[in-house]
Specification:
Two copies of one chain form a homodimer.
Chain A (H helix, E strand, L loop, with lengths): L1 H5 L3 H19 L8 H11 L6 H12 L4 H23 L8 E2 L2 E2 L1 H5 L1 H19 L10 H12 L4 H11 L6 H26 L4 H28 L2 H4 L5 H4 L5 H5 L1 H18 L8 H11 L4
Antiparallel strand pairs in A: 1-2
Amino acid sequence: MAVVRKSFDLKNYIEKSTHAVNDALDFFLPNENVKPTTIHKAMRYSLFAGGKRMRPALVLAAAEACGGSWKPAMPLACAVECIHTYSLIHDDLPAMDNDDYRRGKLTNHKVFGEGIAVLAGDALLTQAFEIAAQCKSWPRYSHQKIILEIAQASGSLQLIAGQVADLEGEGKKTSEAQLKYIHERKTSALLCCSVRLGGMSANCTAAQLKALTDFGYNVGLAFQVIDDILDVTQTSEQLGKTAGKDTAAQKATYPSIVGLPKSRKIAEQLTNKAFAALKVFKGKAQALEGLAEYLLKRDK
Amino acid sequence: MAVVRKSFDLKNYIEKSTHAVNDALDFFLPNENVKPTTIHKAMRYSLFAGGKRMRPALVLAAAEACGGSWKPAMPLACAVECIHTYSLIHDDLPAMDNDDYRRGKLTNHKVFGEGIAVLAGDALLTQAFEIAAQCKSWPRYSHQKIILEIAQASGSLQLIAGQVADLEGEGKKTSEAQLKYIHERKTSALLCCSVRLGGMSANCTAAQLKALTDFGYNVGLAFQVIDDILDVTQTSEQLGKTAGKDTAAQKATYPSIVGLPKSRKIAEQLTNKAFAALKVFKGKAQALEGLAEYLLKRDK
């Protein structure tokens, strides 16, 4: 196994998948010169603002783990990226997190105004379903099932629930259970959905889908706990973004609630669970393993 | 025909369909006590704020015209109502039309705050796809086709395009062509989609779908032209809302661009086209005819 793992070139994988996803997004999205040009410029501004394309890469890698290929998974990879981007545009709005910058670039509403930013988010969410509906389906994984999967992960019980709880929790005392609730919904829900969709695009077995669900859930939650830890332990320089931002915004984090040692323990346990879930793929999950390492064994 | 028409009780039809649609929406939407309660309260607040349920009624009536029944059409009726409601919530935001009241009730953001109002709109849009995916499908009208139909009518080239053009046009000189572009997208697109979805739920023929498309397009545009005319000719008391609001907001209207006589001529032509499109249904389109009369032969 160690030899196989060494032969996997993650950097190359991320470069290639990012390139393929960018091409596909460019294909699916209306051009900037399509009327009304403002909305298409705004949609593309945030969609091509340097996102790491982690969710699409997870879709593609999950498809591979189940013996599938990139092509039938690509519409689903693009759909989850549209949903991720819409959620960032709306989260950045003055009425929400009120952020002026994201990844070193002005946020959507700072460039296009609040009205267009709301509509650009709406349009990307709508576009996600239009793109997803163009995927290949299987008797076991019909378009109906795929649309339900995306709608539920993005809806008022998952992704949006996380943002609501986050919004309502600011400045208030948060319990560990509440923080877990927020992280599960803001991060795990769409990561879990991403790998499940990849599996579905490859007509995966029920056992594979279960493994992907466990993997996605644990990777998502671990990612968020690690994010909380790094916000406390690293300097802004190391992170490449403002450190201590959560503390400053009075946002609850794992270290602020359970302390740093227990946070590290939780992160380790979740990480172990994530990797353990991949055993069922017997070496075909190299890309998933690589991506999980990239997401979880980081110092920024 | 006159005898048949007289026997149709529109008031009763609207009451019954509204009741059935309200029950179905109540069934599909998470209860107010489901966590996070705020978002479900906000979604339900606007969804049950006294909307006339015209779009769902058109879905059901179109299904009937094609020999179908309400039950398989109901998820689609609910989906279009969710989309209509989300678009109203977002249109009312301070960054858009900045309205404090709708149908005599405080707008969503006035009750729940801007952040939650944005998220409630997002959640209703997402919910629309979740509900629509639960409809019955046919070989000719697969879930794929139905999701694409809804996504395209609601997307950046139609419903959202209308709102963008409206937002960008305020206070600027607007041509008749531009105004038509806005009305087609803000109103016709979703009305047209509604009747087409009703037809699809009844496994309609290609000729029936074409007729529904013509009907929906013309009803939608006629409705909007008549709205513009009434805004100029009726008093606030007659309308039950502020008259002359468009003029005050410097919004372009048909009367302001082409004058009142030509506006009336255009409305009449569109209305005639709408009714003419229903001939193909040979008397089975009573409910559609009744609804079109209600929408187009009104004085408020």
